[in-house]
Amino acid sequence: MVATGLGSVLEDAASEPGEALSYRTPPHNLEAEQALLGALLVNNEAANRVSAFLKPEHFSQPVHGRIYEAVLALVERGQIATPITLKTYFESDQALADVGGAQYLARLAASAVAIINAEDYGRAIHDLHLRRELIHLGEDIVNEAYDPRLDAPARQQIESAEQHLFTLAEEGEYEGGFVPLRDSMRGALAAMESAYKREGGMTGTATGLVDLDNLLGGLHPSDLVILAGRPSMGKTALATNIAFHGAKTYRTETADDGTTRLADGAVVGFFSLEMSAEQLAIRLIADETGIPSEKLRRGQMSNDDFHQVVVASQRLSRVPFFIDDTPALSVAALRTRARRLKRTQDLSLVVVDYLQLLRPSGRTAHDSRVLEIAEITQSLKALAKELDVPVLALSQLSRAVEQREDKRPQLSDLRESGAIEQDADVVMFIFREEYYLSRGEPVPRADESQDRFEQRYEKWHQRLAQVAATAEVIVAKQRHGPIGKVRLQFTGETTKFDNLETRHGADDGGL
């Protein structure tokens, strides 16, 4: 290792003879940086060992970062990077001239380590960069906490700090890249074994709706599932039913190696941006007891009803179902809170009601609402992959549905952005024909005979009876399987969806 050069220049400037160092310098290792750059200049093959995770900005000295960047640029173009070929690139670089110019490049080559050690030196440099970033982050947190701005309350500062910390943690994960097929096979076999042991044979979280589970195979980890519909179709009710079933059936098991893993059901994180936590809890109690939610809200209960509510409340209090009803939540704050719940409670299902009420994470607003929705859906998909859990996000539909005679939703009806369709792994629509039929009761026309009106009215009445208390879930997109249509039973008084009490999908336009 050379004793002269950039390291000695900095050390001499840091202290005077006989004077103790009065400040702490950020973590750095100039010798490791010099040794790695030397290895790159002597043998360009070393670049293949570090370029996947080491970036120019990770070096503590900017001049080292520029040398590293120039080496990678030449290697990527298929050229040889040596002190001689790099000399022309740095002839006018004053920073390099200050430490010896072209001769410094030669001294770097002389201080090279073996190529086999290049990766270890690269990881050491990367680790020191993360430590410096942690110091900067800590300073920013302190400075922001001292700043008494009204638009930045303490809770928001905490969420911002967590977001930056997790972003830094993601940067620290440099183990990405190609994975051998044998490792992927282990994960696939584990998923198939779990499906084999589960009742119903599903790899994902069961929805509790037999026909829907048969079509989807449950809600799969890392999937973004969109449930869309017009207002009053029952989006929140269906999402609540699915999430509640997952929480009620939650069960863990101990593996052979002594670790605990999910066996069935899910730990649910429900982000309710539209309804309060109390309103959502009333729906869950109505679902559990069968008492209409309207009666629960008004307190119109008998003694027996109240006893059922108390018993159900005690039972539900033990269910792993967590509600966050913060209004106008940003997608960055949502990710932070979901990560926290994953860390503390082993979160396994996220529900967002609904995505148009989320705010983008950027501080500056986008010029287009389409771009904002695109950012939100991309973030939700990234969250699903990062936490390896299904994310069920509700979405509104455009009014174009109301203009058609057949009001069944289509993918083109997704409101404000085609990015929803693009980013989602599954897109489902909820449709209740009864809702539209009940509001379209025939009335006599001026030029219509009584017999003709009665025939039309009877036809309408028969169709209304056929679709009464039912709903359709239309799976319009699914990456892992077929699309299709499922009919469900819907009880409006308790806002509960259930399996239709007929032979599943036999003669009702189902699967």
Write the layout of secondary structure elements.
Blueprint: H1 6-14, H2 30-42, H3 47-50, H4 62-76, H5 83-87, H6 94-98, H7 102-110, H8 118-146, H9 154-172, H10 181-197, H11 210-216, E1 224-229, H12 235-248, E2 251-254, E3 260-264, E4 268-272, H13 277-289, H14 293-298, H15 303-316, E5 321-324, H16 331-345, E6 349-353, H17 369-387, E7 391-396, H18 419-423, E8 426-431, H19 433-438, H20 450-467, E9 470-478, E10 484-491, E11 496-499
Parallel strand pairs: 1-7, 1-8, 4-5, 4-6, 6-7
Antiparallel strand pairs: 2-3, 8-9, 9-10, 10-11
Helix pairs in contact: 2-4, 2-7, 2-8, 8-9, 9-16, 12-13, 13-15, 16-17
Structure description:
- The protein has helices at residues 6-14, 30-42, 47-50, 62-76, 83-87, 94-98, 102-110, 118-146, 154-172, 181-197, 210-216, 235-248, 277-289, 293-298, 303-316, 331-345, 369-387, 419-423, 433-438, 450-467; strands at 224-229, 251-254, 260-264, 268-272, 321-324, 349-353, 391-396, 426-431, 470-478, 484-491, 496-499.
- By secondary structure, the protein is an alpha/beta fold.
- The chain folds into two domains: 6-172, Orthogonal Bundle (DNAb Helicase, Chain A); 201-429, P-loop containing nucleotide triphosphate hydrolases (Rossmann fold, 3-Layer(aba) Sandwich).
